[in-house]
Write a structure and sequence with these properties.
alpha/beta, Rossmann fold, IMP-specific 5-nucleotidase, binds magnesium ion, 2 domains, about 425 residues
């Protein structure tokens, strides 16, 4: 387990989640006004049950008020006149909501688990709010609609950074349970391997379990795909293949938009990225070498035992991202066609991939929606999709990109993913009963 510490950025406002910070600020007001820290040493008049009951009521009221504002925002989203909602004015970075968010119910649920209202010294935190939002999203995709597709990031979401999904991982039976319930599963990872053996090495715990599980019907085993390199390599489960995965040729899964990215535009974007990465190796004296692939370019440690400092990795990501944003790289000569890219810190390396996770998740929506022959119109819809990941904030936050095509849950560790999947199973069960 590596120690996590925060890196300070020059452009720090980009590294905050405005919605969560804003909700945290609203909850801080009743905390400051009504919490009774002196209750710890003064017993006169205060009962812990009374004060926590009062805090609970006030927090829940605030969450209900925000819930109403989200509903109003959703109404504005569908309004062609595009007048901004009140929520948009208060939280300018707010995105598109694909579902309502039952925030009051989600708060009550998390308060029972985390005793937020019982705290007198520690106000409702960023993590409290993040988990309330996750629960609200799970409630929404299970009660207002039907979840059809769950996509998962790899590192930190399914296993610790750089590790593998082992047969003993508690996440394995929970993913199998989703597949048994006919929810499709996509592992949408930045790991950009081109061959099945490398993915098998990282995911064998899950793949072996899918192959051997008596709970799954043969057709249900096909409910799993791996999307590698953000949106570049698709593998389907294949019981007869040596590593239980079969590569799917690009022409069978590219969406219409992706098929329009020309080879020349992709190459020119990677050229610009390569030059920027070479500059970083020189200017930061990185103990690294350049690696160019057909759909990606990156820097990796020259010696596998050497770790590039995290600050250098982050600096490299930000430099390359800025240069690509400002350059004409990725633009076709007619100027209309922009190839999307994703620059990210992989923990030990930095890569620039063609596309990003929004495209990776969209491919899963199309693949499972209509199969290879299905048109884009048969795609699984955003409100029927949940993407689970850990990168919603840090440099090159690649899971953040999935927000444009699906609902999301933001977890901080594989243990949180397990808890989230238990919550999900619970909510799905409640809907059935
Ligand atoms: Mg991750």
């Amino acid at each position: 387990m590596t120690t996590r510490y925060r890196v300070e950025y020059a452009l720090k406002t980009h590294r905050r989640d405005q919605l969560i910070e804003w909700i945290k600020g609203l909850l801080a007001v009743p905390f400051v006004l009504y919490s009774q820290p002196t209750g710890v040493f003064e017993t006169n008049g205060f009962s812990i049950a009374q004060t926590s009951g009062e805090a609970h009521r006030r927090y829940a009221e605030i969450m209900r008020d925000i819930e109403v504002m989200v509903d109003d925002h959703i109404t504005h989203q569908s309004d062609a006149t595009r007048v901004p909602s009140k929520l948009k004015l208060l939280v300018p970075t707010i995105g598109t909501f694909f579902t309502r968010l039952p925030l009051e119910a989600a708060f009550k649920f998390q308060d029972r688990k985390r005793y937020i209202s019982s705290r007198r010294f520690v106000s409702p935190s960023f993590n409290d709010v993040r988990l309330v939002l996750n629960s609200a999203q799970l409630m929404a995709v299970t009660t207002h609609g039907t979840l059809r597709l769950a996509t998962f990031d790899g590192d930190v979401t399914l296993y610790d950074d750089g590790e593998s999904l082992l047969p003993s991982s508690p996440v394995v039976p929970r993913i199998l349970d989703l597949m048994r319930k006919n929810v499709k599963v996509g592992i949408v990872t930045a790991a950009g391997y081109t061959t099945a053996d490398r993915y098998y090495a990282r995911l064998h715990g899950l793949l072996d379990a899918v192959a051997g599980s008596p709970q799954l019907a043969p057709a249900q085993r096909q409910n799993l795909v791996i999307m590698g390199g953000e949106a570049n390599y698709l593998f389907e489960f294949s019981a007869s293949s040596p590593h239980l995965l079969a590569p799917v040729p690009r022409e069978r899964w590219l969406t219409a938009e992706m098929a329009a990215w020309s080879d020349a535009a992709i190459a020119s974007l990677l050229d610009v990225a390569e030059a920027a990465l070479r500059d970083c190796i020189k200017n930061l004296n990185l103990p690294a070498v350049l690696m160019r692939k057909d759909r990606a370019v990156g820097v990796i440690p020259g010696d596998p035992s050497v770790r590039i400092p995290r600050e250098s990795l982050e600096e490299t990501v930000l430099v390359v991202q800025k240069i690509l944003e400002l350059s004409v790289g990725g633009r076709d000569y007619d100027g209309s066609q922009v190839v999307p890219f994703c620059a990210f810190n992989g923990g030990r390396d930095v890569f620039v991939d063609i596309g990003d996770k929004s495209w990776g998740v969209a491919v899963c929506q199309k693949w499972f929606g209509g199969g290879a022959e299905g048109g884009d119109a048969d795609r699984i819809r955003p409100e029927q999709t949940l993407h689970v990941g850990d990168q919603f904030l840090s440099a090159g936050s690649n899971d953040f990109k999935a927000r444009s095509v699906s609902t999301t849950a933001w977890i901080a560790s594989p243990a949180e993913t397990v808890e989230l999947l238990d919550e999900l199973a619970d909510f799905m069960g409640k809907k059935l009963s």
